[in-house]
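PROTEIN DESIGN WORKSHEET
SECTION A - STRUCTURE
LENGTH: 198
TOKENS:
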């Protein structure tokens, strides 16, 4: 819409862009709960969602539904996502070195972290430096970063999907063994089997 591919009034796509920026942090934080390693961490991330929704409501009440409000909302938005995604990025990249089971999450965490670090640079050039040429370049970088992020995220999802399919096969095999040999023998087999316990 912004690139005039579709003939849509400016007011409509600007409003959609504002809504998109307002919903960005709550949705990204909700997505980051997927990387959480404990119930406490998930609870803290959900608390951050509620706090940020309150912050956004206050900013929108004070400044109205406009670009100025979005400029104020986006700064802590980017900083918060960078901070949380950095911790997941470090954790899963470190784990994936010794354990390939974490590779999918490492790629996805890398996608989020790298894209938001680059978005912070785009934010500076688009909103803080008042130069038309920089804004045009920042938009181009934003689109390129979005494409790179989508590619990395897709690769991570494919790796995770492959891992889930293997886990499903193992679960299905255990159920089949249970129906053939009975629960007690399968439980003993599971205890002795290095393959099923890994």
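SECTION B - SEQUENCE
RESIDUE ASSIGNMENT:
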């Amino acid at each position: 819409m912004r690139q005039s591919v579709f003939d849509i009034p400016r007011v409509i796509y600007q409003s959609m862009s504002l809504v998109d920026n307002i919903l960005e942090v709550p949705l990204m934080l909700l997505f980051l709960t997927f990387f959480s390693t404990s119930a406490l961490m998930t609870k803290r991330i959900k608390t951050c969602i509620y706090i940020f929704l309150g912050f956004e409501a206050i900013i929108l009440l004070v400044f109205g539904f406009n670009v100025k409000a979005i400029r104020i909302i986006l700064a802590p938005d980017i900083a918060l996502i960078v901070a949380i995604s950095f911790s997941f990025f470090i954790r899963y990249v470190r784990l994936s070195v010794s354990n390939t089971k974490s590779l999918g999450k490492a790629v996805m965490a890398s996608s989020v972290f790298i894209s938001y670090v680059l978005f912070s640079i785009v934010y500076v050039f688009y909103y803080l430096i008042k130069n038309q040429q920089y804004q045009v370049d920042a938009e181009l970088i934003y689109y390129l970063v979005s494409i790179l992020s989508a590619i990395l995220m897709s690769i991570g999802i494919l790796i995770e999907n492959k891992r889930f399919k293997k886990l499903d096969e193992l679960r299905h095999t255990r159920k089949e063994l249970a129906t053939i040999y009975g629960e007690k023998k399968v439980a003993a087999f599971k205890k002795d089997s290095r393959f099923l316990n890994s």
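SECTION C - NOTES
The two ends are 50 Å apart (CA to CA).
Residues 10-197 form one domain.
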